[in-house]
Amino acid sequence: MTMSLTAVCHYAHSRTTSGRGKSLPLIIGTYTAKESKGIYRCDFNTATGELSQPELIAEIDNPSFMALSANKEYLYAVSEGGNNHTSALNAFSYDATEGTLKLINRQPTHGASPCYVAITEGKAITANYTGGSYSLMNINADGSLGKATAQPIKREGRRSHVHGIFPNKKSRNIFITDLGCDLLLQIDQAGNIISETSLKHGSGPRHLAFSKKGDKAYVLNELSGTVCVFDIEGTQPRLLQEIASDSVGGGGSADIHFSPDYRYLYASNRLKEDGISIFSVDKRTGLLEKIGYIKTGIHPRNFTLSPDGGFVIVAERDSNRIEVFSRNKRTGLLSATLHKAELSMPVFVMWGR
What is the pTM of this model? Predict the structure, then answer.
């Protein structure tokens, strides 16, 4: 699929919602191997959990992960290509009110299969999965991207698979998960490595979430299906706990997020008994206790919580839908709703405002 540099797709949506509540835009990334064509948007009713039918707002190859600028005026989307020629980061100007994206520019990542992007202090950083590297690009005043500088990770006898980039607001350092080398890296804003923490062989660290104070990191391991809790106040992270998220050996844990009040933590699991694990968080120690599990559709690769914490919205790739679960704010537990939106191979969801 070829993307036009001048193309602008408009999202003609109704701002009326059924029931109480307001309408929030939900941005959806997809794999474009089948019917989907790129980035979609739908309306979410904050009171009822209803979703409108997703509509295309930008035609682009494999936008599997995205990030908004702090002022919400620019959107950055990876093109998760399988080689250096098709792997890139795309910069768009974004109008949340009108529902439009306009491509500003596109820069090769110089690392294959970029699957994550983070924005921090005037730069974009991508995680290049099969490229085994992370790429840094300066963001210009007009939102455009400068050329990428790729930083490969090489360890003897191991093949790097960089999967996530996580800026820490407290330390201003950036944490990187390397699934292939079982590493948690910490770099400074210039891209220099500050620390390396080895996880158990075969863990496969994928995504992480920070505590409210930014003093702990909760690393979700894709292959072992566990969550590792680290104290990150010092230069070298210190392991405090490892607890199972996937208890059936699926080997496909995917995404992890806190509730808005940080009392509960959620992790998605794929490939077997697909669903979301629910953990309570000890207020004093930050340690976890698994308190529940709810099944989802097939392959819940990514999810997000509504800003008020009342719902969890899940991108179910192989069920070809976005599904909404209601959340009990007191107990943290989830329950199914009837609210779904059909879309081919959704893999990412993000609030557009």
Answer: 0.94
